[in-house]
Amino acid sequence: MLSVILSGLNVAQKDMQVSANNVANASTVGFKRSSASFLDVFSNDPSANPRTAIGSGAITGAINRNTGQGAMTSTDRVTDLAIAGRGYFTLASIDPETGAKTTVFTRAGNFGVDQTGKVVDSSGNQLQVFPVEDGRVNTEAELVGAIVSPEKNPADVRVALEKGSVKVGETVTVKFNGVEVGTKVVTSEDITAGYVKFAVSDVDSDTSSQLSASYPVTTVRVPLASITTPVVGSTVQIANANGAITSKTLTQQDITRGYIEMNGPVMTNTEVAALSATYIASGQSTVMTGALTGTPLVYAAASEYRGVYLQGIGIDSKGMIQATYGDGSKFDIGAIALASFRNDTALKPIGNTKFIASDTSGNAILTRAGAPYAGDILSGTLEQANVDITQELMTMLKAQQVYNGNARMLQAAIEVGSRITDKI
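Given the sequence above, the corresponding structure tokens read:
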């Protein structure tokens, strides 16, 4: 008798505990309410008469989690995320001592960007994404952490071009700490702009002073002494054994100083000495005499590092995280990986609204948002707890009545026992 009453008190208390936990987490982002189910207990005695058998009380059968979606609340933060539909965010929990990586799952999408650019939750767990390779999301690759660089990488490097010293088709070389890290062929647009712009990896504002840039130039000087009366606007042409290399129109400045300078590709002194020069005027051509002089050199161009800092982050409904920088450039960081399970009600809770897979839940099936069995991502939105306060209060009132009824039964049993004992 007493054991039956005690079992009733226990299940009523368990029911109230579950409801109390639901109410306590009514404001917890991504929380999923639970409900208790109970079983009756009967003796397994084969000789018992089924018409007169009395139960032996009640026990807790299971604590079931309700994975239904909670209400959505808009926020002002792009990194506040919610899943409209099925799926869980995938997070990597890193042990600071061993470096061991544990994968956990959650519906709570209140993320932020830490000082290193990682997209993390309040516990420092890093949001996992599918990497972007060659402009395509690779859903077959191993998941990586979402990292939004506070400073654009590759770095934006501009190499100033001295007017007239470089031509279309020549190559500008950039070195970082003396090691070549990038080259680019000069275009007419570069010459018009006055600089060559391209990207160099592993350079930031602290190390940009180690950048240097150069492009090859040979300055060839052609004396005008063999020309009796040089004319402004006439042409001087330099050629080698294979034909013309370059030509230039005489200016008054050239005539005054007695020579004309031209820039060409880098050559040795022997190659310069083998050049021939021709003066062309009024349809007549005159082979110029006198030694041509040339000094092969590498023109050291000024390099300018432009710190381009993060201006904003965008996350679309398919989970693509895109970083936008001050120069207008955009980079795809990765696509958020959503996990679905054969039985997500069987996920094992570990606290902080996080779960790990269990044998009953099955392994995680990782997909992009919007794929079959995965919902869409809502940026600037948080999913609230799916707790209905009214329903929980009704459950608590019912559990309280059950508890009070069993307490009265216990009191009655004690009084009956006491009277029997007194008569004896």
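The chain has five helices and 32 strands. Try to locate this feature in the token string yourself.
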